[in-house]
Amino acid sequence: MSADTGLRAFAARLRGERSSGFELKEQERVAIIALVLGGRSYRNVAAIFGCSLGAVASTVRRYNKDHTFKVAPRKGRPKKVSGDTYVNLVHIPGSTILTLE
What are the RNA polymerase sigma factor 70 region 4 type domain coordinates in residue numbering (predicted)? Predict the structure, then answer.
């Protein structure tokens, strides 16, 4: 087994159920920084973790700026209901009452 094959298997285990377009897990960010500091190119690390080149670059940029692997809090007011509940809210015509399905 080559080193890259082992790294890809390790990255797949860290990635778990994350699909593309979703936020990297903290363990993935730690491993990304370790590989970049170890001399791997951004392109190589992105291929290993199945993420975009921009995700690797922004992870490294955030680490260099804040020296943390944590994600910054999101801006804006939090929603009062979860996404699933919000989708299930139904408006009854002629009424101001909202019900859950």
Answer: 23-62
